[in-house]
Amino acid sequence: MTPFGSWGLLMAFLALLCCPGCGEEASEVAMWTEQLVVESGVTQLINCSTNCAQPEISGLETTFSKHLLDEKPQWKLYEINVSQDTTVLCYFTCSGRQEIKRFNISVFYPPKQVLLKLQPTFVTIGRWFTIECRVPSVAPLEALTVTLLRGSEILYSEALRGTTLSPQEAIVIHNATAHREDGHHDFSCQAEMDLQSRGGSLIHRVSEPQALEVYEPVQDNQMVIIITVVSVLLFLFVTSVLLCFVFSQQWYQRRTGTYGVQAAWRRLRWPHRV
Description:
It contains 2 helices and 18 strands. With 274 residues, it is α+β, with helices and mostly antiparallel strands. Among the domains are: 82 residues, Immunoglobulin-like, CATH 2.60.40; 101 residues, Immunoglobulin-like (Sandwich).
């Protein structure tokens, strides 16, 4: 063996003596997901694990109640009930060294009910009507998108904003002009909560469909017809009155003229009676 080779082995041996743990693999703590998104009040499973072959102490720290379901030397399975955003600590002690992993748990309130309201439900073509959608008790609002639909056509979509962690009601109001085809399709509202960026899933719920009664503006035509009929009847009434007046005058004149001639004839025949 060369002098340089012997010197290299000596240095390696001294390094092991000075750092007895350097030859061991550094222990790590892990969980099945780095960030949890859970529904409020729903029981959640959390698995803490390590790559340490012989861990000494291990456990889970949380402000909520926990229940140990199962365990092995390198992992433990817990069940917890989370009601608000929190941080969970998972720890293992390996060779006198403690490793800790922090896990953020976000609580959400999914859209369980979507309420749609059309006002008015009877509308004339060309007139305005209001579409109102309400989603009670949802959080976080910034993950919620509300879409108003006519059939499968998107009429309006709004991404909600808000930083409040507590659940609140989301309201979206949209004004639209009534068209003839609106009466041939149902209206609906879709609430979609996107939690994929937080390690969750995509949750959506749709309201019950609502129908809009659309009718032609026939009231103006009816008014025209009514005015025309009234005008004709008034004309006939006035005409009949005038005709009656003319006929009565002619009759009166004829009657008056006949009596005058008879009186003059009597005076001529019997002048001594005058």
